[in-house]
Amino acid sequence: xxxxxxxxxxxxxxxxxxxxxxxxxxxxxxxxxxxxxxxxxxxxxxxxxxxxxxxxxxxxxxxxxxxxxxxxxxxxxxxxxxxxxxxxxxxxxxxxxxxxxxxxxxxxxxxxxxxxxxxxxxxxxxxxxxxxxxxxxxxxxxxxxxxxxxxxxxxxxxxxxxxxxxxxxxxxxxxxxxxxxxxxxxxxxxxxxxxxxxxxxxxxxxxxxxxxxxxxxxxxxxxxxxxxxxxxxxxxxxxxxxxxxxxxxxxxxxxxxxxxxxxxxxxxxxxxxxxxxxxxxxxxxxxxxxxxxxxxxxxxxxxxxxxxxxxxxxxxxxxxxxxxxxxxxxxxxxxxxxxxxxxxxxxxxxxxxxxxxxxxxxxxxxxxxxxxxxxxxxxxxxxxxxxx
Length: 388
Known about the structure:
Elements: H1 13-28, E1 45-48, E2 53-57, E3 64-71, E4 76-79, E5 115-120, E6 132-138, E7 144-146, E8 154-156, E9 182-185, E10 191-198, E11 207-216, E12 221-231, E13 237-239, E14 252-257, E15 260-263, E16 266-267, E17 272-283, E18 286-297, E19 307-310, E20 325-332, E21 341-344, E22 350-356, E23 365-367, E24 378-386
Parallel strand pairs: 7-8
Antiparallel strand pairs: 1-2, 2-3, 3-4, 5-6, 6-7, 9-10, 10-11, 11-12, 12-13, 14-17, 15-16, 15-19, 17-18, 18-24, 19-22, 20-21, 20-24, 21-22, 22-23
């Protein structure tokens, strides 16, 4: 390690030889020293042995530019550059130069090297160096991980509960009708679909929209963008440009329930069944049920109370002057008379059954009372009603 002013003095031969040897030593050791050379030249190299940094003198010969930090303990180098800037093209219509970052290639069956991006965490007070953490990993087989070193295709992972795992943000998140945050692009560069989050200029909740584009005639030129689906800020899904919250679909479910024979809405004491199957589909506030019942014992009934079917999965809404009707598909072995129809009782979770008073369907209906339930009674029905 040596430094020199690179000037051979006018002196006797032995001293000249020593001077030349010192120049060569300075060159071969890259002007190594604990401090910068006292005599400097443009584009001169200097290795700082105190901090293990390699510098180059700028062309104005008034500053040192750091090039690399050398880890002498582990025999590796790391860049000190705060910006990697590829030289711009010169002349007319000349393509810019690509920047290629490569992980080291393996040999034989050995895996290739990954590309790893790390940042340093903020630390506590003091002068100790904060530790680094891996933020982005590109594996040798092309998988990309954000916040994880073991990605599966494109994988994002948030270490903190409640934080967004993947966040896409456009320039102005409060602009109504701005370009979608995620777009799917066709080969002719036209966007054919988008997922868009918009606000109305205030800071309350946004709206999530799914959009597709329409084609004009046979050339498939994208002429307009049409909203197909919207997730309302208050919940619910609306379709094809309908923005009214009241029209949004806010529930869909399917399931089963256990219907029972009831009188005046209450279970019949001693009544037993061998079949009590109930299925329902609920779309928004509309519920459709299918029921199959078979009794094995009539139980204790009263001739003055409505016979019905209880245990509906949802309570019927109280809608003025509207009593949802019931379609009776099959009934058998009721005592005296079989029910012909029924009504879903508002604000209740049961159906009242009725039978015609005479064979003439134009006459008033009479109440289907409890004494008509037998010990081997079959009943199949379906109903559609509004819920709360």
